[in-house]
Amino acid sequence: MALFGSKSILGVDLGTAGIKIAELSRPLGDRFDLKNYGILDLVAKDEASPKLDDQTLIAGLKELLARSRFSTKDSVASISSFLTFATVIELPYLSEKDLEKAIPFEARRYVPIPLQDVVLDWSIINVKQNADHPNVEVFLAAVPKDEAERYKNIFLSAGLNLKALELENIALSRVLVGDEQSPLVIVNLGGRSTSIMVIEKGFERLSRNYELGGLELTKALSKALGISFERAEQMKKTSGLNDRSISLADALTPLIDLIVFETKKIVSNYEESRKTKIAKVILTGGQANMPGLREYFSAQLAKETIIGDPFRRISFNKSLEPVLRILSPTLAVSLGLGMRKV
After folding, report:
1. How far from 202 is each of 191, 233, 264, CA to CA, in Å?
2. Contacts of 98 by beta carbon, 8 Å cutoff, 6+ apart
3. Quick check: 305 and 298 in contact, CB under 8 A?
């Protein structure tokens, strides 16, 4: 199914701290229309685990569908980078038919679990003209079959028609990077986790995931200031790193510095191995709008740092602009999913 005419689709982001859904249609060309959206925060039963349990997700999806009254049940879902494996491999130039035969054998060297237990997908992302013979760069992705089945069951139980599963990093690249070819970094700051990825020529080249997100920041602030979790969450959102008079920045900076350090390391490793320069860092995810965060990243990394704009190719009711500009980092994955042709 492709997105033609007035047909719409739901981009469903099952995050570590909640569910985000964006309903998009594609009436003309490369532009999309936002028809509806919904966000539901959820609390995991086990705080030690970043993953919400299936029954919580099913109940949450049903509640969000009832509240938001979407016009379709057709959906594309993101699968967390914690649950998948992705890499770029290089092979001698072969016909597509020969690559189909060669890649499963090559994948055994990279995929950490038996191939019979995963759904394997790949695509050619670049042809490199070497002196002797051309090579191809292939983006390789593997999803455990049991996780794919788990997602199917969740969506079926919630009454949704799951058309495709997609790695969340691919959805982010689609909506935030577009056709930009130069290498850049996306830092996705979620509720319970953070992912850092290098994108070049529209594909993920390198990524790392960390179980550190907004929840830990709020806990640290609550403990440092001796205030409730709810009060700490509000102060983080309204003051963030900008208000040193009440030591907010002092409480938040040590954890943020961990993310900055890992970002620096990934950037340095990629620049050295590829003999290139990364000029831009894009912040996204539910924590990206924290006051002072963008400026702090920019100063520490000495690189242009922006808040990603997932609405660059998406039209919406202008009366919603003040709200959507605040929510845009939170909705980025679901918007990217809704833009996928399935």
Report:
1. 25, 35, 21
2. none
3. yes
Domain span holding position 137: 85-143
pLDDT digits (tens, 9 = 90+) for 252-292: 999 999 999 999 999 999 999 989 999 999 999 989 999 99
Please state whether the predicted TM-score (pTM) of the whole model is above 0.85: yes
Q: List Cβ neighbours of 335 (8 Å cut-off, separation of 6 or more).
A: 11, 22, 24, 34, 171, 175, 310, 311, 314
* Angle between the N-to-C axes of helices 321-338 and 168-176, in degrees from 0 to 180, rounded to the nearest 10: 120
Which tokens is 19 given? Answer: 């569910």
**Tens digits of residue pLDDT in 160-179:** 999 999 999 999 999 999 77
Tell me, what amino acid is at 56? T
Is residue 34 included in any domain, yes or no? no
Q: How many beta carbons lie within 10 A of that of residue 74, not counting itself?
A: 18
- 154 found inside a domain: no
* Strand-pair category, 304-307 with 314-315: unpaired
